[in-house]
């Protein structure tokens, strides 16, 4: 009997109070039709309600591909556990995601886990283990001695515990039953064998299917088309049909935000970056260009979401990839794509013209094994104790994403971003940079609102190296504090740097360098 059915038929089997896991990486590989069908059923019937959702990472863009925002409704959603959250302003409505409002107004239970823990926890569910144990995240906001990953006051249950094993401390994530898994692929046969020939990522689809079936639950797969059984080579089929209960066909499913399909994200083509537009000249471009100077050759380099992911684009723009020189730069992201060019914005996560792909869980095995020696990450706050924050600040709750795993396991770290934010305006020329209007919000603060990673502690105790790169200054993170090492021409150290910090650097380098002039050329 065929497993193919409509989205409404597939979600009709979801019961009140179920635990539901769903794949998705921003706009990539998001089973939007199924998530939408859950919301439509709830709006019509008031069921299923009181659901707990597990999203290994932020799913959907909350606009054209709404993803997790479809199920963001009081009564429908009781709890959400996610590795990251999506918080853009919709250009058509001017509003931020409904899910963010529910979190701000304490209407649901909300937890933020590192994506690595979210992925590896699924493996422990799949093998019926009691839980996932790791040192990654100790001393951060997921540590129960801090917030324990909780985003709202309603989040009373401790989903993460501090335990001791062989005399050492670990974070422990107990497993629990998953009733429903929602995954996505490119095509299926009528038995449910799934292939990913049109997807740039695999993410957690297989891990979710294995975990849900180990719990005796049901797996719903969204695909773009159905093909005949035994019509594909076995190497193309990544998930066997025995793990799939229902197949929902959406022939219009988007590859990613603003892109129905683009084969350049699948590899197997000659390099062609002619479609790319240079970044507009501004402080973000200066930061990206300076960060690009740090990227090593023939070393696996991993780029996080945000300002750091602009660096590869400036490397292309400034001619660092001429000829076949791009082959000397081994770039990846936390979502498993290797080679080619790391993209930024809504296309972040997949690479343009990639050479290899790991599923999401295996990629975090790769990261946690210390294979990404160099990491470029963004920062929202850096405090006087040497802590960096990207996970919660002001009214924003983006979570850590892959940040904690990446930062913990890299050898050399750079953190990128503008010096201040909120209205920052600069004048940039070949002579350097001047501040036309200072940002309202300082990012170098006495105490970070949340600790995403204790940088200075790990520089001191584990021998990591770290730099902070901004449009006007560069700092080295030393074991005892920040050292100001570079300054942009045209910038006043006292007025534009020291007075824009809530704390003072430990010292200013004896030979304070001037940032290279070509960073500021249009």
Tags for this model:
single chain; 522 residues; alpha/beta; Glutaconate Coenzyme A-transferase; 8-stranded mixed beta sheet
Protein architecture, described:
- This protein has 522 residues and is α/β, with parallel strands linked by helices.
- The protein folds into 2 domains: 4-249, Glutaconate Coenzyme A-transferase; 283-520, 3-Layer(aba) Sandwich (Glutaconate Coenzyme A-transferase).
- It is built from 11 helices and 35 strands.
- The strands form 9 sheets. An 8-stranded parallel sheet has the order 1-15-12-9-2-3-4-5, sandwiched between helices.
- Helix 6 crosses helix 7 (311-317).
- The longest helix has 14 residues, at 32-45.
- The chain starts with a strand and ends in an 8-residue tail after the last strand.
Estimate nothing, just give the exact number of structural domains.
2
Query: Any idea what the CATH superfamily of the largest domain is called?
Result: Glutaconate Coenzyme A-transferase
Average pLDDT confidence is 97
**Order of the strands making up the biggest sheet:** 1-15-12-9-2-3-4-5
Query: Biggest sheet: strands, sense, closure?
Result: 8 strands, parallel
C-alpha Rg (nearest Å): 23 Å
Uncertain runs are none
SS-based structural class? alpha/beta
Binned, the helix content reads: 10-25%
| CATH topology assignment of the largest domain | Glutaconate Coenzyme A-transferase
Distance between the termini: 62 Å
E-strand count: 35
Write the SSE topology.
Blueprint: E1 4-5, H1 7-11, E2 19-22, H2 32-45, E3 51-55, E4 77-82, H3 98-104, E5 109-112, H4 115-126, E6 131-134, E7 161-165, E8 168-174, E9 180-184, E10 187-189, E11 194-195, H5 205-214, E12 218-223, E13 225-227, E14 237-239, E15 246-249, H6 283-292, E16 300-303, H7 311-317, E17 330-332, E18 337-338, E19 341-342, E20 351-352, E21 356-357, H8 360-368, E22 374-378, E23 381-383, E24 387-389, H9 403-409, E25 412-416, E26 420-421, E27 425-429, E28 432-437, E29 441-442, E30 444-445, E31 453-454, H10 455-462, E32 465-469, E33 473-478, E34 481-487, H11 493-497, E35 507-514
Parallel strand pairs: 1-15, 2-3, 2-9, 3-4, 4-5, 9-12, 10-13, 12-15, 16-17, 16-22, 22-25, 23-30, 25-32, 34-35
Antiparallel strand pairs: 6-8, 7-8, 10-11, 11-14, 18-21, 19-20, 23-24, 24-31, 26-29, 27-28, 32-33, 33-34
Helix pairs in contact: 4-5, 4-8, 6-7
